[in-house]
Amino acid sequence: MRNALELLATKSAGAVAVEDADGSSATLASSPARGIDLLDVSTFGRVLDERWVRTSYSRLTAAAHEAGPPVVAQGSGAAEADEAATHDEPSVALGGHADHLDVAVPMGDIPGGARVGTLVHDILEHTDFAAADLAGALSRAAEKAGAARVLVSGQDVLVAGLVASLDTPLGPLLDGRRLRGLTRADRLDELAFDLPLAGGDSPTGAVTMAAIADLFATLPAGDPVARYHERLRDPVLAAEVRGFLTGSIDLVARVGDRHVVIDYKTNRLGLPGEPLTGWHYRPEALTRSMFDANYPLQACLYSVALHRYLRWRLPAYDPERHLGGCAYLFLRGMVGPATPAIDGQPFGVFAWHPPASFVTGLSDLLDRGST
Question: Which of 43, 49, 333, 343 counts the highest number of beta carbons within 10 A?
Fold first, then answer.
């Protein structure tokens, strides 16, 4: 072994040396002396910015949904205003001479809940509304969406109800058109978005619900959601956020040069155990449901997302010309061509066309944050 090592050392030109290790100069390694420390946990010294989130309409309003709509004391001004608002439409009782407004709804017996809502959204997303055999197209989409797992029975009833909904005139906002006449070339389904709030990662900026409420307060008195700013001042709503806003628009429909945000709703608006009729989806009832669920907030956020999308994608984009408003379709109340209407507004269809300046103003507010 020594001969081999010495040969290696000779060839290494001095890089390797062979020495005897007799232990005369050996030292033992040892740890430095130290005292006994008490065990403890590390402490977190940073401050987390809990306002920086990736949020959505659902998260912004989650606490309000759990708490229910605000309760107004009897005799207050707000209650009196609500009561007066119920008299803006003709006072029509159920039954008797009101039968032409109190129509049966095909989907009245379909259960409510999130699973049915998700099922319906899935079916509509994957159905060509302009198909010659619309019922067949809806049935095939229902089977692929797993309708049999969600509905123990009633798939045929659901399909018939959706055919009626797609065949319902949508009122002045969409020039009286029906979804059934909307081709694939004029629709965008499930348009997803992520919008920065207050610069996204700005260390100081934030978007406050109070600032959004102030913007709603600038709407003219005749606007369908003119008084909604009062609901946005509910302290239960998220106070301020920054980061990113995410969401998905059910449908964007192109009507001529205008683009309309459409949201499908499967809400049951009757009392528990009460048979549903078209009267439950009259315009006044839809306005109350929109306010109670804070849907106007969702509608305006979706309008901003559409505004940003069209600004990027549409040549010579003009918000006044190309933004077409929002339509919330309460599908259970849409019963086909015979759907009743009050003052031209069909049952089951809540239409809102906010001023273009309102949408662009909200877009600017979300971008820069509240001052």
Answer: 333
